[in-house]
Fold this sequence. Notes:
The structure holds 2 protein chains of 2 kinds. In chain A, a hairpin with a 5-residue loop joins strand 9 and strand 10 (155-157). Chain A is globular. By secondary structure, chain A is α+β, with helices and mostly antiparallel strands. Chain A has 2 helices and 10 strands; from the N terminus they run E-E-E-E-E-H-E-H-E-E-E-E. Chain B is globular and about 65 Å long. Chain B is an alpha+beta fold. In chain B, strands 1, 2, 3, 4, 5, 6, 7 and 8 form an 8-stranded antiparallel beta sheet that branches. Chain B has a single domain, classed as CheC-like (Chemotaxis protein chec). Chain A binds chain B through residues 8-11, 24-29, 48-49, 52-53, 57, 59-61, 64, 95-99, 101-103, 105-106, 132-136, 150-152, and chain B through 46-48, 51, 56-58, 60, 65, 67, 111-112, 147, 150-152, 154-166, 168-172.
Amino acid sequence: MVEKKCVGGGEIAVAHNPCLLEAIGLGSCVAVCLYDKRQGIGGLAHVMLGKPPDNIREDINPLRYADYAIDEMINEMEKLGSKKINIKAKIFGGAAMFGNSIFKIGENNIKSVKKKLLKEKIKIIAEDLGGEKGRNIWFNTEDGSVVVGNVFGRTKEY
Amino acid sequence: MREINKLELDSIVEITAIGAGHASKALSQMTGKKITVKFPEVQMRNLEDIPKQLGSPGDIVATVYVGLKSKGIDGNNPVGSMVFVYPMDSAVELSALLLEKEDYEVDIGSMQLDEMQISALEETSNILSGASLAAMAKVLDIEIIETLPYCSYDSLGATLSSILAEMAGKTQKALSFNTSFEIEDHEIKTYFMLLLEPQILEHLVDRVDEIFHDLLAEYVEEEYSGI
């Protein structure tokens, strides 16, 4: 049985050993899964918000924001021996849970995450984004595979 | 945000308890059943921790969001939001109870909600929020306008995080009030939560202080006038 780690909103987790990183109840949040196949190092960020304001309030957890969370994750992966050039990304989430009429957060999160990954030259090799339903994801850091499911029982592997 | 002291917090709890009481009366009228309300639990929490108070993130729920605004000179200002969380079996049973009167059959065994059920839950949430806000509006001395209710049925984490994300850029912590209703003869549970924008919360605390000081002054005056 591999180790399981639950990654909540505004949190990141990085693992070198085989580990199942899970993000349950992703709505407008985006799960960014980074994987270095060569080293077998994986990281997951549960991003709540897109672009941070110019001066983010100091008492606010910076890992809520795409830019900070992705930076921190790359940092930690590099500390474990990853090279940025070997890191690939799979991204999931960013749904509009209450329809598109009131919250634009999911859409903004997707945009920010994509922009940040482009800036860091990390290629997105799989994604399942948008829609109006929540997702649960399980990221296996042994082989980089990600299982995406919803509460109604449907699952798909990426 | 400055720290809220015990006296201020107790006063705020009292205001929300009055609101919850009014809401339960409205729900009782709608369903014709006796309602038990839990005394509200009020605490400053990290936004990330708020869903944990209501269950685990994977639980299937129907969540109804009602946005709150106030009329200002410069248009409508955000006040916060009222969120109703119905665990899925409660959502199905409550919608059946409400639609019964309209001769609409609900499939109790289904874990999906149809349009009629969704609109029944939205309508109920709207009535409950209206009933519960009067006390709060009076203390704040503002007119609170509710937006249309929106329902989403999915996991607790997915539905709540979208609402919380709306505040996540403005504050690390929010004062969350939650309480639950139970309907007699039914296993129906409804959680309800009021989230206030940081500046409204500050205004609320100021108002509570003001009212308390006025009352104290009045009391002292009365005491002395007798001498």
